[in-house]
Design brief:
Layout: H1 5-20, H2 28-45, H3 50-75, E1 87-93, E2 100-105, E3 108-114, E4 126-133, E5 136-141
Parallel strand pairs: 3-5
Antiparallel strand pairs: 1-2, 1-4, 2-3, 4-5
Helix pairs in contact: 1-2, 2-3
Length: 145
């Protein structure tokens, strides 16, 4: 006996509740809930055997997750993380050999990562802000004209 549309509705509701509780870090539960809801509607319209419903559920979930990942990677290709234009900052403390240090940017102290760790950055030196990853700036030495 194939699962009824009520079964898929309960699966969708359960997965979406997990999303609302914040347990979905990458969108898989959201896509699974949406796939289950699609099967709820499809199961109400036509009768499919249990194996077909299961294959369709996992197929829809895989396709939805792939599309979500593609969209996510495309929408965060780094453009939103970059400042509007190349900006300058001033080194507050010398950078460690691993490339980490602190700079003053827009009036505040920021953790920073030297994108070219082979070039030393010394206190007082001006650097170019190349991007931002959370609350860590990506900086590099200013090029001399």
């Amino acid at each position: 006996m194939p699962p009824s549309p009520l079964f898929w509705l309960l699966v969708a509701t359960g997965l979406w509740l997990l999303v609302l509780l914040g347990l979905d870090g990458d969108g898989l539960l959201l896509v699974g809930g949406s796939s289950a809801m699609a099967l709820t509607l499809l199961g109400a319209a036509i009768a499919l055997p249990a194996w077909a419903q299961t294959v369709l559920f996992f197929g829809l979930a895989a396709l939805g997750y792939a599309l979500l990942r593609r969209w996510s990677l495309r929408s965060t290709d780094g453009a939103a993380l970059l400042p509007p234009k190349a900006d300058q900052a001033q080194v507050i403390s010398a950078f460690n050999p691993d490339g980490s240090g602190r700079v003053q940017w827009q009036g505040q102290s920021w953790a920073a990562l030297n994108v070219d760790p082979h070039t030393p950055l010394n206190p007082g030196e001006r650097v170019t802000v190349m991007g931002r990853d959370g609350n860590c700036l990506q900086v590099m030495a200013r090029k001399s004209p």
